Amino acid sequence: MKALDVAGLGHVYPDGHRALDGVELAVDAGERVAVLGPNGAGKTTLMLHLAGLLEATEGAVSVGDLRIEKRTLAEVRRRVGIVFQSPDDQLFMPTVADDVGFGPANLGVKGEALRERVAAALADVGLSDLAHRPPHHLSVGQQRRAALAGVLAMRPDIVVCDEPSANLDPAARRDLAGILQRTAPTLLLVTHDLPYALQLCERAVILDAGKVVADAPTAEILADAALLARHRLELPFGFSLEAARSSLRH
């Protein structure tokens, strides 16, 4: 069974802007897929559809055996965890532990079971010693890990990360990559950071003007300079794809 199946997905905003136009995307359980594309391509709109935060204009999204519709929203939102680019969109409780426990508590998890979930999620992201710290006292990297812990505490089938490497220093970027590699059951990485996509995802799709215009192994997409240029994507100056691929093999 596929973890995610997006079939003919279209979305038109109230002002008439068509953000998605017949998107087709299937993701197997355990797969790691990068969603690439220029600003305005429809990446965020697609991401919001995956957790039922927007209603499709056309087509459908299924998570496992559940088609996203009103009656399935609660379970879909347990199965699909979104880590937003800004931790301020997720961290709002007095302490880190309170934030991590907020989702499971709303599912009815209580007492020792809730404490165990919170402790396990904090351990997964290396924040056990900061459980009682106010989230706004954390570094950006720690805040992003705390937001991920809140998602992991829901025990999702799919983790969707929106620009997870943005504004992180090299050490925090590396730490987060390691955590995602260990913990995300099935990963969708929405990013402009092409080296991060290569590091974390064996497959990539390019979304542009609301359509999937490429779907291939990440290294193959990054090696196609003409394809990247057509869709306003660029590798960092001095980046060596061959060196990166060699490093990943070792």
UniProtKB/TrEMBL annotation:
CDD domains: ABC_cobalt_CbiO_domain1
Domain ABC transporter: 1-234
Keyword Zinc: no
Subcellular location: Cell membrane
GO cellular component terms, semicolon-separated: ATP-binding cassette (ABC) transporter complex
SUPFAM superfamilies: P-loop containing nucleoside triphosphate hydrolases
UniProt keyword Kinase present: no
Keyword entries, A-Z: ATP-binding, Cell membrane, Membrane, Nucleotide-binding, Translocase, Transport
Classification via Pfam families: ABC_tran
GO molecular function: ATP binding; ATP hydrolysis activity; ATPase-coupled transmembrane transporter activity
Similarity field: Belongs to the ABC transporter superfamily.
Protein name from the UniProt record: ABC transporter ATP-binding protein
Organism: Glycomyces buryatensis
Taxonomic placement: Bacteria, Bacillati, Actinomycetota, Actinomycetes, Glycomycetales
